[in-house]
Specification:
CATH superfamily: Hexapeptide repeat proteins
CATH architecture: 3 Solenoid
Largest sheet: 8 strands, mixed
Structural class: alpha/beta
């Protein structure tokens, strides 16, 4: 059964790479059916990474860059403009990362959202969007949500089910909804020098 799934993944990968703007470094493993909707954007995956995420682009020309030796579990990345994930990052399953609000806060501006979707269009006027950056060596626990404009600092840890709406300092541990710093890690300690 595993061989059949691996073959299907390989075939979908061939189709995705023909139709979408996806580059993938050597030694990386990708669950290609999660990238089927990538025709509207650009995906760049570094070397030696594992990507099992579903990736969606809400606007042509959006860009998702994933670094080297990074693992993204069965999660969801929703991109309008830009999402950057650094090197040596661990992102668990069930994580959602989005670089926009999806809808306007003003009811009058979102009143036609459903009919616009049916017609195959989206009016981005009045919808806030800002890039998301996950810096090198960060670890994001399962079920976390990272919203527009957030930068997760180098070596930071996001606890399970945490909702991140503001920047996370390097080597900070954050938990909760909204996220709050509960600990600062020492990057010079024996733990980090290995």
């Amino acid at each position: 059964m595993y061989n059949v799934i691996a073959l299907l993944n390989w075939l979908v990968g061939v189709l995705v790479r023909r139709r979408a703007r996806v580059s993938c470094g050597s030694g990386s493993k990708v669950r290609w059916w999660g990238l089927r909707g990538c025709r509207r954007g650009i995906v760049s995956i570094g070397t030696g990474s594992i990507v099992k995420a579903r990736i969606m682009f809400d606007h042509p020309g959006g860009s998702i860059q994933i670094g080297d030796r990074t693992s993204i579990g069965a999660s969801l990345l929703v991109c309008h403009t830009k999402i950057t994930v650094g090197n040596d990052v661990l992102i668990s399953w069930g994580v959602t990362i989005s670089d926009h609000d999806s809808h306007s806060l003003d009811w009058r501006q979102r009143a036609t959202d459903v009919s616009d979707w049916i017609a195959g269009r989206k009016d981005w006027k009045g919808i806030s969007r800002r890039p998301v950056t996950i810096s090198d060596r960060a670890w994001i626990g399962f079920g976390a949500t990272i919203l527009k404009g957030v930068t997760v600092g180098e070596g930071a840890i996001i606890g399970a089910c945490t909702v991140v709406t503001k920047d996370v300092p390097p080597y900070a541990v954050v938990v909760g909804n909204p996220a709050r710093v509960v600990r600062h890690l020492d990057p010079d300690s024996e733990v980090f020098r290995g």
